[in-house]
Each structure stands twice: as structure tokens, then as C-alpha cells.
Specification:
Family: Belongs to the lipoxygenase family.
Site (Essential for stabilizing binding to COTL1): 99
Strand content: 25-35%
Structural class: alpha+beta
CATH topology of the largest domain: Lipoxygenase-1
Organism: Sula dactylatra
Domain Lipoxygenase: 114-222
Pfam family, one: PLAT
Radius of gyration: 23 Å
CATH superfamily of the largest domain: PLAT/LH2 domain
Shape: globular
Order of helices and strands: EEEEEEEEEHEEHHEE
Distance between the termini: 49 Å
CATH class of the largest domain: Mainly Beta
CATH architecture of the largest domain: Sandwich
Length: 222
């Protein structure tokens, strides 16, 4: 019996959590696990710990599959990353940073950077081919007008996958962070200052005065 410890992290952004069912499959060089349920409720900014038990050691974990399905209402999920610890203590990290929508399965490679020549296993080669095909289908270009730069071959932003379009949700998050940062700079004296600083030490001194100050429920630190 081989036991794998898995940690699934949900992104800390607006509506990143989900009430849809999420499950995971571990794929190793010597086999794969059964599909294991992660949770029926994942909250933004939180991590979910679980164990995946297999009859035998799967070898180095090279891929994971995240499965999402819904019983009634659709509730998209933004996965930040997945961390897997093998029976021998080896840590495998799988960055995700993307939305899962509808009934879908997403395959993620282990996060170590590798070149095409490093893919010795056929399953990794096939994964790379599928990923390339998906990108070619998503990023098709057309000529808008004579002499103009080419643009994406869609009629509206709504036609794009949610991981490609700059959605209202992401714009809201970006605006909130920008407003918070602007407020911290105002209190620090960085904005609207009529004169220049005499030295770098003076600038650091002014900014350090805001340490621990709370703005709109957030703690501002230099």
C-alpha cells in the first residue's frame, strides 16, 4: 500500500471557490491512482488536505488530473496549485492558476521546467501535443482591416475562454488592489509630495512610519 498526501489550494480571488464536486487522479511513471474526491465545498484562499491510497507505488508523479462535475448549478472553480508528497517524502508541485468550468478534466504537468527532449514517456509527449493543439485552437488570428495589426479571430470577448479573457471579476480584483496600494502611498507621503527627498534614508524613514497602519480593514506594511 502506497499513501500520497495531497494539498489542493484554491485561489484567493473573488468567487474562486466552488460547491461543485472536485476530484483528483495521480499519474505516475508506473501507473495511476483511482479517482479520489477532493471536496464538495472549496473556499477562496483555503487549502484542502487529503490522502490518496494506492495498491502499489506509482513511481515519480508526472501528471495529475483534476475532475470537475456538477449535479445542478454550475459553479466555476479557480485552482491555484496542487502539492503531492510521495511515500518516500518526495514533493511534487503542480501549478495551475486557471479556472475550471462546466464538466471538465484538466491535466497538469509537474512544475519542473523541462524541454521537449526531456519527455521520455509517451504520456508526457501526448500531453504536450494536446496542450499545443488547444493553444492553436484558442489563439487564432484574423485581419481586422487593411494595414491594421491582426487580432484574435472572435467577434466578442465573451467568446474567449475565461482563462484568456480579462474578465470583470479579474478587473475588480485588480482595481481593489490598486486602490489599496494608492491609499498606502498617500499615507506614506509618496504621492502629492511637493519636494524631492534629500536622501534614500529619508524616503525609507517616511515609508516606515506607515508600518502596521490599517486601511479599509487591511494591514499596510512596507
Amino acid at each position: 500500500m502506497a499513501v500520497y498526501k495531497v494539498k489542493v489550494a484554491t485561489g484567493n480571488i473573488l468567487a474562486a471557490g466552488t460547491t461543485n464536486s472536485i476530484s483528483i487522479t495521480l499519474v505516475g511513471s508506473r501507473g495511476e491512482s483511482c479517482q479520489t474526491t477532493v471536496s464538495l465545498l472549496l473556499l477562496p484562499g483555503k487549502e484542502k488536505d487529503l490522502t490518496v491510497s494506492c495498491k502499489q507505488d506509482l513511481g515519480p508523479i508526472i501528471l495529475i488530473r483534476l475532475h470537475k462535475w456538477r449535479l445542478f448549478l454550475e459553479d466555476a472553480w479557480f485552482c491555484k496549485e496542487v502539492c503531492v508528497v510521495g511515500p518516500d517524502g518526495t514533493v511534487y508541485r503542480f501549478p495551475c492558476y486557471q479556472w475550471l468550468e462546466g464538466v471538465t478534466t484538466v491535466e497538469l504537468r509537474e512544475g519542473s521546467a523541462k524541454k521537449l527532449l526531456d519527455d521520455e514517456l509517451e504520456i508526457l509527449k501526448e500531453h504536450r501535443r494536446k496542450e499545443l493543439k488547444a493553444r492553436q485552437e484558442s489563439y487564432q488570428w484574423k485581419s481586422f482591416a487593411e494595414g491594421w495589426p491582426r487580432c484574435l479571430n472572435v467577434d466578442s470577448v465573451e467568446e474567449l475562454d475565461s482563462n484568456i479573457q480579462f474578465s470583470i471579476m479579474r478587473a475588480t480584483n485588480f482595481t481593489g488592489v490598486l486602490s489599496l496600494q494608492t491609499a498606502s502611498y498617500l499615507l506614506s507621503g509618496f504621492l502629492l509630495r511637493p519636494t524631492s527627498w534629500k536622501s534614500l534614508d529619508e524616503m525609507r524613514s517616511i515609508f516606515s512610519r506607515t508600518e502596521g497602519r490599517e486601511i479599509g480593514g487591511y494591514l499596510v506594511c512596507p
